[in-house]
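Entry type: protein chain
Record version: 2
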Amino acid sequence: MRIDAVGIASDGAGPATYLDTLEQNLDYLQSVGYDLIEIDSTPFRLIFDGRVREPQLREFVAVLRNFSVRYSLHGLMRLNLAYDSRHDLCRRIMVAQIEICRAIGATRLVYHSGLQALDAARSGIRSRLFSDEELEEGASREVDAFKYLAPIAEDSGVVIGMENGDPHLWEYTVIEGCGESRDHLSKHHARLLVDPILRQLQEINHPNVGMTLDIGHLYIAAHTLDFDYLEAVSCAAPWVKHLHFSDNFGRLDQGFDAEWERWAFGEADIHMPPGWGSIPYRGVLACLPEYHGDIILEIKPFFRDYLGDGLRAIQDILADM
């Protein structure tokens, strides 16, 4: 294993919707000791109707260049190349995100796998769940999209990492409300498992498309769906191009969104600093012996005062490996 840097997601310093706040947050993160920052560009008025606004991109780049750090980019969370019916628009948004990566010098772009087919039923766009045939068509559609996007990413020096997901109580509610068994969660939210993502990556077969392994998401999924956590990490290992680390207790949420109440019950993906929960970090890293790349800590801003502790905790573990 070779870790180039332990970085931090930019919102760990607090929410930023304007460039002056972003600049303050980046200054704080650099002062804590981070020299790699994963940026969420969505609040900064960069992409409209699938296209980049060049004046706003220049202003964004000017702020980022004030700091001697490297960047990766976290893409739009709702973007879905499998099951959103606006396929061409979704592709344009991905191309726009690659363009932003090129402008800021980011070599990693995180994309949440589209193998989550419940949002349309939840929002009311559909009154029923996708059929087995529709689910298969969507997964193939996403593969085709990445076969188109991969050469564009390669030309820009960008590797796209498809990220695995975590389960939520509302997903069970939607499934049961549509008349299906709650046992069908992994069919309609296939990115909870690594194998469906890996099958897509095998079909895409391009070095600039791999997996972003979120070990916190996988930990909750393993406990909820009852599969072997470290075995899943080992299966994903050959395809992992990027790592997201945070801590939790592996418990499904109970429908309450208030983070400070979730802490007391130890539930949901609460994005705590490493060592605050029960994820076996040494076991995870031992399953990734060939990994070469970065680790991004996704710690929520409620733990801003402990971002330095999170960095040191992972550095200490890596020093012992």
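Comment: The first strand starts at residue 2 and ends at 9.
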